[in-house]
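Journal club side-thread
Mid-discussion, someone asked how the predicted structure for our own chain would compare to the paper's figures. Pasting it here so we can look after the session.
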Amino acid sequence: MPKVWVFGDNVSTDDIIAGKYLTSTDPVYLASHVMENLDPEFARRVGRGDVILAGKNFGCGSSREHAPLALRAAGISAVVARSFARIFFRNSINLGLPPLTCETTEGFQGGDEVRLDLESFTLHNLRSGAVLKLSPLPPFILQILRAGGMVEYLRRRCASGP
């Protein structure tokens, strides 16, 4: 069952993947170092389908695409935050990592088992019963995310013709 990882405000792209690892674009390598500035054990403990829940301004700092790439490669299925840095939000969509906004993060603790529903735009805490209502994404953004990112979305569109 997917778990939630809780972080605070102003998690920077350098917190997500430190600059010293940017000599590589290998997703597996980046995933092995993801979030280590904030939680040195994160990369070892994170599981497929897990969700990050954070405060305001998630992904602030540089415009590096390595940050959402590392999170996705580590198994993170979505980042839910009160707000995002604009470039991180866009990079996440381009790389197929859903960036979802919410009003509050109350009712969730790190390690809680969760169920993310992108049809109803909700995040359910299976321990506490809390449900976060997430801001819906437009249908065309969901199409990009379901394709796995912008490159795959465009590849499919070009292959299907005009």
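Post-session note: Strands lie at 4-6, 51-54, 78-81, 99-101, 114-117, 122-125, 131-133.
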